[in-house]
Each structure stands twice: as C-alpha cells, then as structure tokens.
Amino acid sequence: MTFDTIIKGGTVVTASDRFCADIGICAGQIVVLADALADAPEIIDATGLLVMPGGIDSHVHLDQPGAPGIVMADNFESGTRSAAIGGNTTVLPFCLQQKGQSLRQAIAGYQAKAQGNCHTDIALHLIITDPTPHVLGQELPALIAEGYTSIKIFMTYDDMKLADKDILAVLDVARRHQALVMVHAEGYDAIRYLTDRLEHEGKTAPFFHGASRPIPVEREATHRAISFAEIVGTEAMIVHVSNRQAMEEIRRAQQRGLGIHGETCPQYLLLTEADMDRSGMEGAKYVCSPPPRDSDSQSACWEGLQQGVFEVFSSDHCPYRYEDEGGKNAPDGKRSFRYVPNGIPGIATRMPILFSEGVGKCRIDLNRFVALTSTNHAKRYGLYPRKGTIAVGSDADLVLWDPEREVVITHALLQDGCDYTPYEGLLVQGWPVRTMLRGRTVMKDGEIGSERYGLELHRPTPSENTQGCKRLA
Ligand code: URP
Ligand code: ZN
Ligand code: ZN
Known about the structure:
Elements: E1 5-8, E2 11-13, E3 18-20, E4 22-26, E5 29-34, E6 42-45, E7 50-53, E8 55-60, H1 76-85, E9 88-96, H2 103-114, E10 121-122, E11 125-127, H3 133-145, E12 150-154, H4 164-177, E13 180-184, H5 188-200, H6 208-212, H7 215-232, E14 236-238, H8 244-255, E15 260-264, H9 267-270, H10 295-307, E16 310-313, H11 350-359, H12 366-380, E17 398-408, H13 411-414, E18 427-437, E19 440-444, E20 447-448
Parallel strand pairs: 1-6, 2-7, 8-9, 9-10, 9-11, 11-12, 12-13, 13-14, 14-15, 15-16
Antiparallel strand pairs: 1-4, 2-3, 4-5, 7-17, 17-18, 18-19, 19-20
Helix pairs in contact: 3-4, 4-7, 7-8, 8-10
Bound molecules: N-(aminocarbonyl)-beta-alanine and zinc ion (2 copies).
C-alpha cells in the first residue's frame, strides 16, 4: 500500500497506550499503524521522538472584543500560529455575544475573522451575555442542533455576568437540548464590594487584584453553579479552577454522582499571588481571573489533575499586550488593578509546561498527559474519535515531541501577538519539534508553514452523536 506520508520509528502514545509503530497517512487520515511501513513520497523519521495526538486546547480567547481601547493581542492567525508552535492542532476559542447582538451575528463575525487565517483547526464555544427570550427560546436551541454544543456563562464582569435566574435558564436550555454549560465561577457582588473597599483604602496596585477576588469568592460561586446544575438536572464544566476549596466542591459533586466537570490551567500550577506583587506595573503581567493563589492551591490543582477531578488542562489563553496593561485607558487616568485587563497568554506553553512539570517530575504519566492535553477535550466537546487520539480513521493530527530537549522559554519562541510571556526564563524539558494537521506539517523546528490549513470543525449535533463521544464515560 502506498501512503502520502509515513512517520517512522517513533513511540506512539495515546491516552491509554504506548507502543512502537509506524504511522501511514492517506488523505489526511491515519490509515495504518504497523511495523516497517515503507512506501510513501514523504517519510518522516521520528526515531527518539514521542508521537502523540496533537494538542487540543479547549479554552482560548482570540480576537475577542473588550473594554474600549483594549485590543486582544491575538487574532486567529497569530493565536493559532502560536498554538501550532506549542504542539496543538485544534483550539476551541470563544465566540462572545455582545449585548444586543444575536448569536448568529456573533458567530458570523468570528467566522469572518477566522476563515483562511487558521494554522490549526478550530471549533467555537458560545459565550452568552444577553439571554433574551429570543436567544434562549429560538437561537440557542437551533445552534445547538447545528453543533454549537458548548456555552460559557460568567458569574462576574460588568458586561458579561448573568443573574442567577438567567444562569438557571441557560442551564435549562442546555438540559433540554443536550449542550454543556461552562461556568466562570466568581461572584460579582463580592468582587465589587472588595474592589471598592480596596480602592477606598488606596490599595490599587496589581497585587490587589488577588485580594479583590479571594478564594471564598471562587468557592461560593463554584458551589452556587454546582447547586444550580443539580437543581436543573444537567451537567456543567467549571472552568479555570485555581484552588483547593473550589476543587473540593467539584470533587464532592462528582462523588455524589453529579455530572460536574473541572478544568485547570498552567497559571494555577506555576504562578502565585507573589507574581502580581512585582515592582511597578510588572505585576499586571500576571493578572488573570481567578487570580494565581499560593503553594497549597498549586498542590491542590496537581491533585485534581492526578486524581481526575480535572479532566481537561487548558491554557485560558487571553492575551493582552503589557504595553496596554495597567489602566492607561482608565477613566480620568486613574490607575487601579480594576482597569488591568484580566487574562494572560499561554497557548504555546501549555503542553511543554505540563510535560516538564508533570511527566518530567513524575507527577503524571504520559498517558494522563495525552488525556489532559488532547483526548479528554475531544471527548468532552464532541470531537472524538476524529480528534484526540491516534487510531485508524482519525485525522492525522499529531505532535512529534522530543522528550529530552531542554528549552528556556522566551517570548520570542512563542510567535504570538503578545509582547511578553509570564513564563519568561522558565527551563522546560520536552518540546514539540513538529506539528501535523490532517497529515500536513504546519510547524517544524519552530518554523510555521506559509499555508493556513485550519478549518472550523463541525461538531456532531446531539442527535448525530450516536457513538457516545460527547460525554466521557
Ligand atoms: O482572566 C481571565 N481568565 N480572562 C479570560 C476570560 C475568562 O474569564 O476566561
Ligand atoms: Zn472565565
Ligand atoms: Zn477564559
């Protein structure tokens, strides 16, 4: 049999197995896993490398409108470019509905921005900020039926938060139409109260961002979100969990048999509130929400990853340029943590950080690494088994990984649109040397090809999803 491409001599790793095999690729799909494949115009030598499913990052913000004067640092071109540098082949960015906008208008806007500009495949989650009767009664059910089966809602932020009654209403639509609600769990009123109090006391440096949304703010909202999902009788994903108390809320819900899922991110493993206390406005580089916490929170996030409380490890890549940080756009030139845009970059560093800190330091094994960075995302968001595994019939979305390569992370390596990385100077062991999307090399040794092959993926609708692939067992 002749193939388009053969990957020879690598160690194939999936979420469940590890074996030596060559991979035969035809028309963008894996067609054979076997020994000693020979016949192809392109033969890639993977000796000494791990061959894993391309990373899937299911929590990414690209080209998202923000506060006046604040522009997100990455569009679809630069964001997916950086994703491919970091070994990813699919990303799931959010499609933000602005107030007064229909969901269809929002999707059309994002599709226009994405089309022809992506180095990886994409699939869009919806963010609902304006849950009118028309949106919840007509648009959302129709879009779920078209495959837009994941919806993020916010319990905080002036322009995005939903009232409790609206959270319940969105959960109810998700229950009836088999979608998954992703919840940003931080309580708005408590944050407002603490922010006003801190500013009144003159505590306005970036460090006080953390004090404005302490652990109880996240724990309370996590508990409330879980309770609402239980009351409605549906599943929910609690995203970007930062600490032990929130993690334990999720664990307890899971132990009670509720369909509550958890996600954590690199910033909660590596950063702490001390990073926001760097001199001048430097701390603004670490301002995200929930904020980085303390070493016990880091340990709890590792436990959550090791014990399966967190099924996905995402970047929450939400890039703003440092140049724009620090509230230069604040009213009356006021400087306060309140005006620092929330979010940090991390799309390229997610996999190397988990590999180096997790696999390299024996906190997780290789199979869990693949599950947390790829397979579980595909399963949860309806892309499996087309994506997220190495199997006959799956897309040939692969990352060739050098487990020995030592790299000192510098922003210049990452090729995003930001002007810094929070991980500058971090030494990691293990690095992606080639990223392949549907059989085509999109990144090799840090070089990105000029073609943009990425497509928007059609996710199976709830009725098409007969393989049980949307829900994890
Ligand atoms: O600080 C963060 N995480 N900003 C991104 C938006 C979000 O809440 O995911
Ligand atoms: Zn969020
Ligand atoms: Zn986010």
